[in-house]
Automatic annotation (TrEMBL):
InterPro entries: DctP_fam, TRAP_DctP_sf
Organism (species): Litoreibacter albidus
Protein name in the entry: TRAP-type C4-dicarboxylate transport system, substrate-binding protein
Compartment(s) of residence: Periplasm
Gene Ontology cellular-component annotations: periplasmic space
Length: 334
């Protein structure tokens, strides 16, 4: 009996030591980033918060553009090549079709805060969770962006028909909307935009104002839009599912705090960046193309609804609940 008791005490002590080691062990993760300075803020501030508040128990090393090509981040996080990275849904919609609901144009998400709140609801949908799990990844946070505008060279479009024949880089629903007026969509990555615009591969870029400024597209452009309010490309900071599951509970809780901090910092950075590059537009003599409320109403009636319907039909053909996801987004009350 005494031997059994001693054995039990020893086993219990060993288990306590193991638990203590798990919560205090050094954890080192790598994070793949890319893009303009404001775009990188989410990942940078997330890592900064974890590194400064983990008590030395966890370190996230940020790599800007060196770990993976932008279109391969999902695959590389999936196989555990590194633990964290930015995934742009529209770069590979076939891999995350349901999540592409957040890329649809003219969704009723007026602010970046609205977009984060609704994205969190989408992440909690059972079918979307299954979609992430199929790749062995988990959503950590939304890399929130403001609504896209269009910047380009040549004759400024005076109306929607002015986009006819324009070769447009657009990775979200805004591209599909403008394609209905004759724009031709060209799929190039963010880092490729400047060269593509310079060499005539594209005529214009639909992106956030901070991306236009960060990539210095104003150096090559003649005009830019304001008030388009068409939506934005959805970006998720994803983590490797197995690596996340292995984290101690205190680190998982810290991730939630880091997410809130990084989101607030991202919104500030995006707003500041949009303001900071306005003098460059004036210096380079770009023409502002103001999109009227009437034009927005026309876009919503003529372009947005068909894109929404096409998304639902495509999901139905795949046996996926696209209508359920669209209804969730349209009826959300952030």
């Amino acid at each position: 009996m005494k031997a059994q008791l001693a054995k039990g005490i020893t086993a219990g002590a060993t288990m306590l030591m193991m638990v203590g080691t798990a919560s205090a062990q050094d954890i080192n993760w790598d994070l793949a980033l890319y893009g303009s300075p404001a775009f990188r803020v989410s990942g940078e501030k997330f890592a900064e918060y974890v590194n400064e508040n983990s008590g030395g128990n966890m370190k996230i090393t940020v790599h800007n553009g060196t770990l993976s090509p932008t279109r391969e981040v999902l695959d590389n996080v999936s196989i555990g090549a590194f633990e964290l990275g930015y995934v742009i849904s529209s770069y590979h919609p076939g891999k995350n079709p349901l999540l592409s609901v957040m890329d649809l144009p003219f969704l009723p998400l007026d602010t970046m805060e609205d977009r984060v709140a609704v994205a969190d609801m989408v992440y909690e949908n059972a079918a979307v969770k299954k979609e992430f799990a199929s790749w062995g990844i988990v959503p950590v946070m939304t890399v929130v962006q403001p609504n896209y505008e269009v910047m380009g060279k040549g004759t400024p479009p005076e109306d929607l028909e002015g986009f006819s024949g324009m070769r447009l880089k657009a990775t979200s629903g805004i591209g599909n909307a403008l394609a209905s007026y004759g724009a031709s969509l060209v799929n190039v990555s963010g880092p490729e935009q400047y060269n593509a615009l310079q060499t005539g591969v594209i005529d214009a870029v639909a992106a956030t104002p901070s991306a236009h400024g960060g990539y210095k597209l104003f150096e090559l452009s003649d005009w830019y839009t304001t008030g388009m309010a068409a939506g934005t490309a959805h970006v998720t900071l994803v983590g490797n599912e197995a690596a996340y599951a292995a984290l101690p509970d205190d680190m998982k809780a810290l991730f939630q705090d880091a997410k809130a901090y990084a989101t607030a910092e991202t919104i500030k950075a995006q707003n500041n960046a949009a303001e900071d590059y306005l003098p460059d537009l004036e210096k380079h003599g770009l023409t502002e193309v103001k999109i009227s409320d009437e034009t927005i109403a026309k876009l919503r009636d003529e372009a947005a609804k068909p894109v929404w319907d096409a998304y639902v039909a495509d999901m139905a053909a795949k046996g996926l609940p696209g209508q359920e996801l669209l209804d969730l987004v349209l009826n959300a009350k952030p």
